[in-house]
Write a structure and sequence with these properties.
The chain is of the alpha/beta class. Helices cover 37% and strands 24% of the residues. It has a six-stranded mixed beta sheet with strand order 6-7-8-3-9-10, sandwiched between helices. The C terminus is likely disordered. Keywords: ATP-binding, Nucleotide-binding, Transport.
Length: 250
């Protein structure tokens, strides 16, 4: 397993958002986490990304414990997260944003010394630019992009770091149905092309079922069910939760 979490627990005051959760992700696997609002899926996602620290349990990456590492060190190891809201430098061009993401750790100072980007960095940024379909917007300021294009830039920024594990937090949020279908196909294609391990948190069930190898369902801070797309579709208890009869406590 490339990622393995054991007995993860996270509390916010008297509320247990994640309760003794065991989680694993195989190399090259695409796994989605779903559940009703407040089920604990985003908290679990953030624990794996290093954005939150657990109150109990541990997380292993390629057999090495990373539970207490700061998020920037987790990113350097190859676990990279996208966000629900776009994160970029709005006044810089799309290519400049990707070039910053593609730089090795610590080399960002080149920007401010006037030396510019190394050729290897620019080559990598241009490659990602084409992979996410933004080559025609390379010189445009990021703030001029449409909403859908901004979501592609978010994906490109993550890919530019050459991750081993990609954590996607609602990457199609705010997209039209047509944009959503296109984005889902692109995400699946890139995951397969680069043999990425992917964890997806997504409310759009059509997206989840199109891209996932396995689906994990959370409710009340615990894993409620896990299985293939077909197994989750047929699970009557999962259907009951999504019809509102299951009570989410966090």
């Amino acid at each position: 397993m490339i990622i393995q979490a054991e007995k993860l627990t996270k509390k916010f005051g008297g509320l247990t958002a994640v309760n003794q959760v065991d989680f694993s992700l195989a190399a090259g696997e695409f796994k989605s986490i779903i559940g009703p609002n407040g089920a604990g899926k985003t908290t679990l996602f953030n624990l794996i990304a290093g954005a939150e620290s657990p109150d109990g349990g541990r997380i292993l990456f390629q057999g090495e414990e990373i539970t207490s590492l700061p998020q920037e060190r987790i990113v350097r190891k190859g676990i990279v997260k996208t966000y629900q809201t776009s994160q970029f430098f709005p006044s810089l061009s799309v290519l400049q944003n990707l070039s910053i993401a593609a730089q090795p750790p610590g080399s960002w100072r080149l920007l401010w010394t006037g030396k510019g980007f190394a050729q290897k960095t620019l080559t990598q940024a241009n490659t990602v630019l084409k992979q996410v379909g933004l080559e025609n917007a390379a010189d445009s300021p990021a703030e001029a992009l449409s909403h859908g294009e901004r979501r592609y830039l978010d994906l490109g920024l993550a890919l530019a770091t050459q991750p081993k594990v990609l954590l996607l937090d609602e990457p199609t949020a705010g997209m039209s149905p047509a944009e959503t279908r296109q984005a889902a196909r692109l995400i699946k294609h890139l995951a397969q092309e680069f043999s990425l391990s992917v964890i997806l948190v997504e409310h759009d069930m059509d997206v989840v079922m199109e891209v996932s190898d396995r689906v994990l369902v959370m409710n009340e801070g615990r894993i409620f069910a896990e299985g293939s797309q077909q197994e989750i579709r047929r699970n009557s208890d999962v259907q009951r939760i999504y019809l509102g009869k299951g009570r989410a406590a966090c």
